[in-house]
UniProtKB/TrEMBL annotation:
Broad EC category: lyase
Protein name: Orotidine 5'-phosphate decarboxylase
GO annotations of cellular component type: cytosol
PROSITE patterns noted in UniProt: OMPDECASE
Source organism (scientific name): Lasiosphaeria hispida
Amino acid sequence: MSEKHPSLTMAFGERAKNASHPLTDYLFRLMELKSSNLCLSADVYTARELLSLADKAGPSIVVLKTHYDLISGWDYNPQTGTGAKLATLARKHGFLIFEDRKFVDIGKTVQMQYTAGTARIIDWAHIVNANIDAGKDMVRAMTEAAAKWKERINYEVKTSVTVGTPVSDQFDDGENGDDPDRLDPREQYTGFTRDSRDVDARKGSIVSITTVTQSFESVDSPRLSKNINEGDDIVFPGIEEAPSDRGLLLLAQMSTKGCLMTEEYTQACVEAARENKGFVMGYVSQESLNTAPDDNFIHITPGCKLPPEGEEENGHLEGDGLGQQYNTPAKLICIKGVDVVIVGRGIILAGDPPSEAERYRKKAWKAYLSRVA
Ligand code: BMP
């Protein structure tokens, strides 16, 4: 880390002005507005707990980090499911949703995992991350997928299918197999367009009449503003709604003991970030990686914990016994130069998680203020 890099002493509000990604600009301004550089890692067991925690801790945080695949009862419905509900809470409290999916695969597979499948991550997560062990082309693949998605949401396709005489075997191809609005990979990336014949072919054995209606609806506002139920349209005051752009964080370093990510790998992340500034917001890392004069990437850092209230703050913090290592917000922000700290169990396992989130917010913000002073 270069101690003297300008991003280390510049206020977040100033960094917003030079941000190369609309979401980074937004996030820096949100951080100033809420006096928060705290990300809550909402690693709880059920969707109900997740939504309740997001609602209660929402005022203290600027990013909510999820692992959707560890949540039981995740409702995949794009309009009314868990992702859509989180999006409503994000708008209400002013935070961004970061799905910690750590994509790593060939570009084509990652494109599909990101934009399609059951979870349709891109629909509800403003930010995702990637491990680029597979090579830098994966970042380009994700950039292209996000650009196509954004193009597509400007012309929302509404398709309704009416079927007659359904019989039990119509559910053969999975619960979402008949979702007419789902992204077809061929449709997305090769110009393929589904038409009524496809639907007819799939339904041929089970329906007597199939009617497909498609309409194209132009929308100007962000995707997340759509499908809002009445009463759920509250937007956090003092800032506009988050842009509909999607952003990527590169997993450049990990917090774990014995992490195998080499300096060479981390340097490849830095190069990939600089080459894809329009989509890469920054890094999940353990230190600032801004070294070139105009680097202004955001650094979001897990492995953060505070000692219990009243205990010596600079003492040694125990890991979790499973490889996780912890540092205090003061060390990560002032010494290592990161911008946002990620806290999971430090908050979740506290007696009163919302007030513990507030304690972390204050400590992390104080560390930032002393860094830029
Ligand atoms: P906790 O604060 O409870 O240790 O949780 C840390 C969270 O950050 C977990 O969700 C974990 O998956 C994630 N994480 C991490 O701990 N270290 C990394 O290097 C990268 C991560 O995404």
